[in-house]
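Subject: design request, 237 residues
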């Protein structure tokens, strides 16, 4: 049976009056808690409890819940309750596979526009990844590395979609023993170096293939770890 979560996992980092739209603030706070793994799959969110926690009426809470439901992060239930929506193994595979397609396309668009300074910045970020010990911080630097490579594409909508997909998948790396069994820093950094060499040489097709393989390697590691937890058996395509 689902039980109500400890709402202390939702960080209140600013005074609500500092935000023009309180509902957006509440949605941001709950979204961050979901994506960080502080609110696990199936956690029950009660509007009355949230209103008390944030010190507001139920009106902005209700609007925040509508936003999160539209993003497929929660499912509504009766009696002004909702639950955090989880991803099964099939959906995780779908997220990573879609990411590989988007990231391959982004690097194709980015390479003609990328500068030597951006490549050098990406190399610096990769060097940080090689020594970073905190898994949460490692994920942040890794996202920054990929962003540095993709932003020259100018494809703002695709970049936004990619950020959403990354957040949906990475919450499991955060929840599952802080990445134990998933984290592969040495292999990842080596793949990053290969990608950077291809980008710097202007090898568009090869860089696209390398990016896609890189994302699918992570997919395979996440899926096999999820299977080891007994979530669902699955044969990868």
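Subject: RE: design request

Done. Sequence follows.
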């Amino acid at each position: 049976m689902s039980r109500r979560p400890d709402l202390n996992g939702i960080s209140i980092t600013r005074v609500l009056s500092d935000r023009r739209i309180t509902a957006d603030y509440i949605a941001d706070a709950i979204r961050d808690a979901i994506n960080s793994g502080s609110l696990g799959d199936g956690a029950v969110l009660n509007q009355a409890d949230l209103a008390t926690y944030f010190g507001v009426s139920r009106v902005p809470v209700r609007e925040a819940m509508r936003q999160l439901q539209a993003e497929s992060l929660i499912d509504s239930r009766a009696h002004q309750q909702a639950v955090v929506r989880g991803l099964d193994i099939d959906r995780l595979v779908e997220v990573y596979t879609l990411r590989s397609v988007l990231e391959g396309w982004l690097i194709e668009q980015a390479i003609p526009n990328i500068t030597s300074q951006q490549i050098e910045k990406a190399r610096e970020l990769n060097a940080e990844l090689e020594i970073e010990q905190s898994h949460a911080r490692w994920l942040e630097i890794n996202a920054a590395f990929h962003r540095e490579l993709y932003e020259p594409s100018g494809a703002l909508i695709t970049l936004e979609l990619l950020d959403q997909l990354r957040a949906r998948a990475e919450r499991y790396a955060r929840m599952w023993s802080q990445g134990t069994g998933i984290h592969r820093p040495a292999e990842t950094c080596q793949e990053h170096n290969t990608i950077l060499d291809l980008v710097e040489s202007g090898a568009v097709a090869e860089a696209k293939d390398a990016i896609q393989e890189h994302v699918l390697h992570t997919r395979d590691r996440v899926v096999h770890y999820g299977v080891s937890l007994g979530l669902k058996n699955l044969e990868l395509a």
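The two ends are 34 Å apart (CA to CA).
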